[in-house]
Write a structure and sequence with these properties.
globular
Amino acid sequence: MTASLFCIILAGGSGKRLWPVSREMFPKQMFKLDDEYTLFQQTFLKLTNLVDDKNIITTTNIKYATAIKEQLKVLQEKFCRKSEYKVLSEPIFKNTAPAISIAVKYIDDKLNYSSNSPIILAIPSDQLITNREEFSSLLEKGIKLANAGYIVSFASETKDINENFGYIKARRNAQVTEIEPNALKVTNFIEKPNNKAQKEKLKGKFYINSGIYMFSAETYFEELKRHAQDIYINIYNKEIQNSIPSIPLSEYENIDNISIDYALMEKTKKLVTIPLNTEWKDIGSWDAIYEISEKDNNGNYFRGQTIDIDSKNSLVYSTSKLTATLGLKDTIVVETEDAVLVCDKNNNNGIKNIYKKLNGKNEITKEIHKTVYRPWGYYTVLENGNGFLTKCITVNPNAKLSVQLHHHRSEHWIILEGEATILKGDEFVKLQAGESIDIAVEEIHSLQNFGQEQLKVLEIQQGDILDENDIERLEDIYGRA
């Protein structure tokens, strides 16, 4: 375990290439590849074997912060961890350069008790690294280089170019190899090469960038000041808070929306790389899920309720219904409650273009699933139409919805199971199964379950705006107000 190392987990992306399982309000880091832990939880647990868990910081978008905290709470309870896990949140999405900068500033100001500049590892929440011992050895090598003032990229040799990734050309350098014999000095860093000239620069031996970086806080801010002054000016002298969001919107909304790769890594002269000698995979697409999954004798990966005859080299991922397939070849099929994706396994990068079309149509399936999880439980959308929407709300024992009001809709609640304690205006009302209540437009209300069993409520909304943006939270025990 590397006690002096701090880690930043980047958990704010939306995962468009894993639609329809990944949505804006339920991104890829939130769902499970296995039956126990989400991608984010797997990343956190992997790091606890390498560094002190109190030195792990998660940075995310404000709309994911509560869900991330709930996932961390599960890990704390399961493993009896006493450390308070830190979650930093952006008020709006601004990509990885501002997100990493917020976390580096927080670590340097609040968590570093040494006179030396802290060494920091930044890692995405959707990476698969199988050999932890080998990865730990690579981190030790990276620390030596970071202490010498370099920014370290961990990269894997490859022969293929995919426009969704960044690529590195590197060579041996006497000053670098004196510190770490296996390290290389980066001569070219090209993020998402999409034209012939860029691809020409990658001729010969090159590496795919993993998106995992290591550096000292001092070096990071020196290079940020040199190459990305907008971000440096807007973050370096700011106070980063534990609250949600961690930096006020007024101080953040005009900052550049840019990745760390474009903002810094393509420009800096201090970038070195250590080749990854362990299996690494970015879990950012369905073909990546297929590659890492255990397959049958015909090269197929099936998950969920599936029946198949004579398919080969295909992925079928079913979340809610029986999915039957016949004679598929090199095909991806993904079924969710409200959307089905079918595509060529070798051409699934085009999914992001489907996502763009959904965005142009203002299609809700790009944002949320029919079943949406909240800190207090979950709800499932049953039906929606012109001026109405119905949900089944499930509230966990001893859980409570925020005290809130709506400006554009009224609600009618029918208790299906359990006993509900309802705040309506300035009065509390208790209702049993079979009883109902009306909530008027702009009436303050809340719903709470004091029982030991789940509370189920049928909600009927009526109004001209029927989405989650029409919620004004006044009080919230989960910190969302």
